[in-house]
Design brief:
Layout (H helix, E strand, L loop, with lengths): L4 E7 L8 E7 L17 H14 L2 E7 L1 H7 L1 H14 L7 E5 L9 E5 L2 H4 L1 H24 L5 H4 L5 H10 L10 H10 L3
Parallel strand pairs: 1-4, 4-5
Antiparallel strand pairs: 1-2, 2-3
């Protein structure tokens, strides 16, 4: 039996709002997926198409989340690693090795290796990058419906001018990360919300 290589990556470290999402993917060497790449380099439409292929053809895949409260309590790096750990644990398969995008590995009972730029060079990590990004974007669209006026469908929680102006005008939401500088500054300026 071939080695089971799991790739993992996260999406949503930089936004001011919403949870961080991670994915873990074990690809099936007998069912290759053409076009895997860093999710940030792909159009939204291409990501969605590839995400469907990954879900259909991968040997195993899973999603893990860390909440806004966990991000504020732990910090974004530790929350991202926690989301990765949850995704790997949810696979239902024990990988032989876990390849992680970046410089840090989550606390897992498997052989793990961090690879800088792995989302662009390792197909398993690229696949995880795509799933994490599409899952998180879908969550932000749900928040757009729940909190109209903030533009979550446009910026997905990132600190764009529109988003910052919306927070200043409409207030800080429960899904905003209070430990992040721009949100913390608005809370200090306008008092608790």
């Amino acid at each position: 039996m071939p080695n089971l290589i799991c790739g993992t990556d996260e999406a949503g470290r930089g936004p001011l709002a919403g949870p961080v999402c991670a994915a873990a993917v074990i690809l099936d060497p007998h069912r290759p997926i053409a076009g895997l790449a860093d999710s940030k380099k792909l159009s939204e439409r291409r990501r969605e198409t590839l995400a469907r292929s990954i879900r259909e053809r991968a040997t195993a895949w899973a999603i893990g989340w860390a909440s806004v409260e966990e991000i504020d309590r732990l910090n974004i790096l530790r929350a991202s690693l926690l989301a990765m750990k949850r995704a790997i644990e949810a696979l239902g398969i024990h990988p032989d090795e876990v390849l992680v995008d970046g410089v840090h590995c989550p606390d897992i009972p498997y052989c793990a290796r961090a690879i800088i730029g792995g989302d662009a060079t390792v197909p398993e990590i690229s696949a995880a990058s795509i799933l994490a990004k599409t899952e998180r974007d879908a969550q932000m669209l749900t928040f757009h419906d729940t909190y109209p006026g903030y533009g979550f469908d446009r910026h997905k929680g990132y600190p764009t001018r529109f988003h910052l102006e919306a927070i200043a005008r409409l207030g800080v939401l429960p899904i905003h990360r209070r430990s992040f500088g721009p949100v913390r500054q608005l809370l200090l300026a306008h008092g608790p919300q």
